[in-house]
Amino acid sequence: MFGSPLIIYSSDYSAALEKAKSVAANEASLFDIFSLEVEGKNYTKEQIVEFLQDITLPPYEGNYKVYLFHHADKMLAVHANALLKTFEEKPDYAIILLVTDNIKGIIETILSRCQKMYVPSFLENKKEVVEEKVLKALLSISKNDLYTCLDTIKEIEDFNVEDVADIIFSWYRDLTVLKLGLSEVTYPEAKEAFALLKQIPTLESINNLINRAKIALERHTKPKLILEYLFLSPWCQARHCGI
User: Fold this and answer.
1) Superfamily name and number for 6-118
2) Which 8-state DSSP code applies to residue 145?
3) Are the C-beta atoms of 117 and 125 separated by less than 8 Å?
4) Domain ranges (residues) in the chain
5) pTM here?
6) CB atoms within 10 A of CB 57
7) CA 130, CA 174: separation in Å to the nearest integer?
8) What is the pLDDT of residues 179-236, one digit of tens each?
9) To bridge 10 with a disulfide, which of 56, 73, 84, 119 should be the other Cys (CB 3.0-4.6 Å)?
10) What residues contact residue 48 under an 8 Å CB cut-off, 6+ apart?
């Protein structure tokens, strides 16, 4: 997970920061966790230089040193660019976490060198928010828009996988209803998807898919892999991809 720096982002900064602190606490002792906070409007040159010097030193205790950048979007481009080489070739003992509620404020050269973790806001665990994101991913895959689907899956990773599976099943039930010539559906978006699809997976195959996903969840498979399996398998099956 920590082969490259990790950007932890959310519309709710507190939620992102809480997740980052949890990650940091799991990986290093309190003595080896270094918080970098904005001084004034932006990070200063001195802060960046101090970080670049400190990261060359091995940890005092434990196996890792964790560097937690608060409000990582508050970094001038000239200072962010000074981090690129270190981000690409950081020591194995260094874990770099960048926390933000404005991921668009982080320059592309930094984004391209980092892993990303979306954290739902404390209000986003409501059913309607889960449905909104799941439906977005499902509609995207119906349009063969894999990029949007995969990007949306990143925003679903921290939701309850079984709740996501229930929505997926209801979606394909709606498509089956439309295939039978009926019009009463749970999700109006299914009508748009139905018009685009040439083949509709059977509900039996979707149910089997979900059961296999639940088994994978019990075996502690990463939620991201399970979700990709749930969203992409029906799409691949319809195109004879052999999944």
Assistant:
1) P-loop containing nucleotide triphosphate hydrolases (3.40.50.300)
2) -
3) no
4) 6-118, 127-238
5) 0.56
6) 11
7) 18
8) 999 888 999 999 999 999 888 989 999 999 999 998 998 888 888 899 999 999 988 8
9) 119
10) 79, 82, 83
